[in-house]
Amino acid sequence: MRTSQTFSISFFIRKKKKQPELALLYARITVNGKSLEISLKRTIPVDKWNQSASKLTGSSAESRQINKKIDETKAQLYKTYDSLLKDGLLVTTETIKARFLG
């Protein structure tokens, strides 16, 4: 019998305490209701972040670069999830993170 799994990816920011105008960018992966955060090691201006779109607004080189990083990260996380399923391994947030980070 096959059980269904839920898997989702979202992106969010966390403001820096000493520089509240800047924030760190994170990806949150959720598998069957259990979530885990992965830092993308990028600092972005808070005023350019669009939470509903999970992207930076504007068309500056910085915005395009960060948005590309978000898209690439999302694609790589989905690829990692599919790879674990295909290999018949247990899919958890920890196994996805471990394989994603290498």
What do you see in this structure?
With 102 residues, the chain is of the alpha+beta class. The chain has one domain (7-101). The protein is built from two helices and five strands; from the N terminus they run βββββαα. The strands form two sheets. The chain has a three-stranded antiparallel β-sheet. A hairpin with a 4-residue loop joins strand 4 and strand 5 (55-56). Helix 1 packs across helix 2. The longest helix is centred in the C-terminal third of the chain and has 26 residues, at 61-86. It is elongated. This is Arm DNA-binding domain-containing protein. Pfam families: Arm-DNA-bind_5. InterPro entries: Arm-DNA-bind_5 (IPR035386).
